Structures are given as C-alpha cells and as structure tokens.
C-alpha cells in the first residue's frame, strides 16, 4: 500500500526589526523570520515574499513566510518586518549678512545697499542632523555647494532658485528649495549712489541719505516699476514712472488682514507673506494680474504667531514689500 504525505508543514514566524544602511537599503532572510517551523517528513525550503527594503518601507511591513516540505506540501504564515530609519524633512533658513535696514524681506537683496550676500542654512528636520550631508544645485554663486550653510553672493539682478538635497545616516534623501530675488539699486556714474522709489518717482541718492528715504511711508529701495540692470537705471532716474500700488490693512492686525494691490502692467503676479526667518507662511496670489485692476486678497492672521512679517508683491519684474505686524 502506498503511503502519501498530504500533511502541510507547521509554520512558526517571528517579527523582526532591521536598520537601513548608509545606502538606504536593508535585506532580511527567510531564516530570520522562521521561528522553528516543522514538518513530520522534513522541511525542504523556506521562502519569503519580500526580502529587500529601502527608505520607502520605513515602519512596519507585512511579509509572508512559506514553508515547503520534502514532499511538496506547503503552508504560509504572516510576520512583520519593522524597518528602522528616517526620511529627512529639509528646511532652509535665509539670513542676510548685514543688519542694515532695507525694507526688503530676508530673501531679497539690493545690489548697492545693505546686505550683499545671504547665508542659506539647511537642516534636515530629524534628530540625527549631524550625520546629514547636503548637496546644493545649482552650485554657481554659492561658497560651497556641499556645505549645510553656503553663502550666496550675487553679482547681477535676477531671480535665483536653489535646491538642497539632504541625505541622512540611513541613506534616505529629500529636497527643499528657496528663491532669492536680487534687485540692482546701484546708480550714479561710479555706481556709488542708490536708487530709491519715492512716491512713484525713482531717485538716485547718496547711500547716507537712504535711511531717511526709507523712513518715509511708501518709499522703497530700488527703482520704481520694472527691475532694471544697472546700465538702464540712469534713463529712469527722475522720470516719474508709474509705481505699482501695494498696501495692507489693518496694520497691526489680529485676525484678518487685507492686501490690496494694482499692477502697473499686465503680468504674472505673486503675493507672499514671509516670517522673520524668511520662510513663506502664506501665498495669497499667484496668477496674472491685469494692468490697472484692483485686487484684494486676505491673510488669515489669526493662525500666525505674533511677530513681524513681510508681505511681498512680485510683478512685472519688480518687488514691493510691506512690513506687517501680527499682534495677539
């Protein structure tokens, strides 16, 4: 009489933990999950449905162990592989290298007056920050594209966006970016004077006169209207070019502020609010604005901590800022 083995193995599993290596990988074996599986005729193979893990698997992962005996009978049972690691949450803080008041937020530089460079400080948002490496792009203009806190020293006006990729000790990476706006406020035959927008008229004044100009309500650093290269500024000095309307009220504010603006030309416009660290806390408008049309957007200040904020309007190549005080 033929005796046939039709009895499936008894599968016993155990949960395990595994830590990602510096390359962001981890592997496990079926034997590590097995917890003494047996079969009357003998176990032939142990197989696991998932043996490789990466940064996307951080946390608990269900796996299935299958045991096959020498006669081809098989049975399976579940277990959990907990992958230990962390994904960076990079942030960038922008700090100017001079405390000279310019009326511009931390992410805006005016060539010719005030801070002429900024420090971009990245952090990864996890506990093991010291083990994090950073790679910035583009590298042009930065003092060190592999440092956590490179210095950006611009030489020409424009908008510069820098991205940083943070990689931690677990080999996991994530990116963040920041945009720096550079205005050219230089004027005069030797570039030794400064442009100021005074009541819609662009003035070219001595650097020593700038603090008094900026102390007047509505006055801003750099030319009125479109941002120009230095070679174009003399043509606008005293020309009376129309200025973009930009105002906030009430100020100080407790619960809700209204931002009113009007663009001098039909162009893409963006209204953002920055905290004292230069971080964007709200984007209120990001679309095309029609020339001469009034726009009003609302900032829900009740959700913000008390402090000093900067409201920035970027339109038609020009930047306007307003200081906004939130009180509780």
Structure, described:
The chain has 328 residues and is mainly beta. It folds into 4 domains: 16-84, Immunoglobulin-like (Sandwich); 87-184, Immunoglobulin-like (Sandwich); 185-243, no CATH class; 244-328, Sandwich (Immunoglobulin-like), CATH 2.60.40. The protein has 3 helices and 24 strands. The protein has helices at 30-33, 210-214, 233-236, and strands at 16-19, 25-27, 43-48, 52-54, 59-69, 74-84, 91-96, 108-111, 118-123, 133-137, 151-152, 158-167, 173-184, 186-187, 193-198, 201-206, 220-221, 245-249, 256-262, 267-274, 280-289, 294-300, 307-315, 318-326. The strands form 7 sheets. Strands 1-6-5-3 form a 4-stranded mixed β-sheet. The longest helix is centred in the middle third of the chain and has 5 residues, at 210-214. It starts with 15 loop residues before the first strand and ends with a strand.
Number of helices: 3
The H-and-E topology, N to C, reads as: EEHEEEEEEEEEEEEEEHEHEEEEEEE
Low-confidence stretches: 226-242
Helix content: under 10%
Q: Within the CATH hierarchy, at the fold level, what is the topology of the largest domain?
A: Immunoglobulin-like
- SS content category: mainly beta
Percent of sequence in beta strands: over 45%
The domain tally reads 4
Q: What's the CATH architecture name of the largest domain?
A: Sandwich
Over all CA atoms, what is the radius of gyration? 30 Å
Number of strands: 24
Query: What's the CATH superfamily of the largest domain, by name?
Result: Immunoglobulins
**Can you tell me the CATH class of the largest domain?**
Mainly Beta
N-to-C CA distance: 91 Å
Overall 3D form: elongated
Strand order of the largest sheet: 1-6-5-3
Integer average pLDDT = 86
Most strands sheet: 4 strands, mixed
